[in-house]
Design brief:
The chain has 61 residues and is mainly β. It is 11% helix and 43% strand. The chain is globular. The mean pLDDT is 91.
């Protein structure tokens, strides 16, 4: 998978969030990736290496 993540892209993660969805919005990229849950609005930050392991699919925007 290419690392072509852009701010505003929606991504599907392998594991679901406790609120019941696995759809996230990318808020910031760099060494860390800042994500916001589409369902509940929770914001998390993941290191890029960890993010690359946990991502399933990038949805085209």
């Amino acid at each position: 998978m290419k690392n072509d993540y852009k701010v505003g892209s929606k991504v599907i993660m392998k594991k679901g969030h406790p609120c019941g969805t696995n759809l996230w919005l990318i808020l910031r990229t760099g060494v860390d990736i800042k994500l916001q849950c589409i369902n509940c609005g929770r914001i998390i930050m993941l290191e890029r290496i960890e993010f690359n392991k946990k991502i399933k699919k990038v949805l085209e925007e």
